[in-house]
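User: My collaborator and I are trying to settle a disagreement about how two of our proteins should look. Neither of us wants to argue from intuition anymore, so we agreed to look at predicted structures for both before our next call. Could you fold the first one, then the second, and keep them clearly separated?

Assistant: That sounds like a sensible way to settle it. I'll keep them separate. The first protein:
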Amino acid sequence: MQSEAKRPVGKTHTYAPRNTFWAHFKAAIGHNRNLGDKVLWCLGADWQRTRHKFEGFKPLDKLFHAVLCWEWWAVAQYRFAYWVHKRGFPELGRRRFIRKLLFLQQAALLRFCYFTGKIIEGLSGARLSGEAEIGPGLLLMHTGSCGIGRGASIGCNFTMHQDANIVAGNDFGYATIGDNVTLYSGARIIGAMHIGNRARVGANAVVIHDLPADCLALGAPARPIQPGERPAPYPASRQMRDFLSTLILSGELEKVGQHRYRDVSTGEIITFDYEGAEEAGQQ
């Protein structure tokens, strides 16, 4: 018998995926996919609440009102700005060229976001910081001067009417707001505090303290009123104390000692024993 021809013995090659330029680039592009899905989901929930404003309209009228609904475009601009500000970068090792490309992309997105934000702000009057955390179902009822600061943390189904604002206090802290909260026209939330679920802040109310859940807050400063409850008395001593707290939070007064305050604009020293005044009012 003839001997079988032996196959040449050589090295075996395995074709494993190589860490090429395009593999790293695709990984960098897909790094923020979960963030994009979250933003789109929130945007869909926002639209589901906004579209109820057009119920009863004819199809053509509904399309016309939706295109010119500037408060909706303000919400959409916020979601886009949130996506831009929260984007992360994967670990690329020594791939400096890809890292530079991503930095250039981020710089271009930030400038484009700023440009479109200014246009929407001029058309709608709403300024929603892209660094704020707002849950799904955000609804702006009307156009007008309203704003949400960069450090605010807000739950789902938040409703804001015109001229309502959430701003930082004297300590640069922002509020933490629960779910299904409503701010009516002219309401202000100033400083770091907690507002419970389903709370409602009435028109022109100024919130500088925590609010419990399921309450209606009225007045300046705002006081919680439970359903069916009569407003609590508001003695003059408490009015003076709250007025003093408001001046300190606004930066017009500076505390320099026990019961001693300095007028920031004039430098005058004011002595006010508000604790003694409150005790006198309770007697």
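The second protein, kept apart from the first:
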Amino acid sequence: MFGQGFDSPQLHLTGQLKIFKNLCCPIKLITSNQAFNNIVKLMTGKKPAKGSDILTPEFTKEQIGKYNKFYERAFAGETFTEIEHTEMSGDFWSEISFYPIYEGKAVVGTACFSRNITEKKKAEEEIKKSNERFEMAALATNDVMWDWDLLTDKIWWNNNYYSHFGFSRENTEEDISSWHRGLHPDDKDKVLSGIKSTLKGHQDFWTDEYRFIKGDGATAFVLDCGYILYNQKNKPYRMVGAMLDITG
């Protein structure tokens, strides 16, 4: 409700009841910053005034009902945070926190702080969509696909890894050691050195051909290709790729 923050990354407002513990009475606005004023004006068409009701008739019944419940919780002494999704002139998300204000042991008001998390939610949604596309591609291909978390060393394999190379999911470690163990001893140093050099050089792609030992002890010749993802500090954090059996 109060979280877009056009002029400030954080919004602050304080509300107080005329008659404490009786939420049928108006919740009055004591003070607010420009970010709150802007977003309320966008939602209702009116700039809020000090001393006015926070939940004005310009809000929809759904909005009033939802925020009344938030204020009921705050005036009951609960400190809590909610994630808010609002569609107005644009699509945005906010993280809104309520803190009861005490006078002695009695709750006499509530402070509300809201943070704009729109970009964070958009980034999360893009990651979710990307993962969904990757999972669908993994189901549609005959290649062995993998997803390696470079920060935790966890690795994910699609079903083709288990069916083609003869491993069981239950007996396969979730970390990169499951792949290391399959590298042929005569190729292992070369392959690992190549990956290390690729990451150190901040390259986007890695590829290599090597021998891989299958679950039954047989040797497969594979072509392995990976794409490296970097964070804003140019640190590699994820590597995704596909392994193709090129055994003649």
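Some points you might bring to the call about the second protein. The chain has six helices and ten strands. Confidence is low (pLDDT under 50) at residues 1-24.
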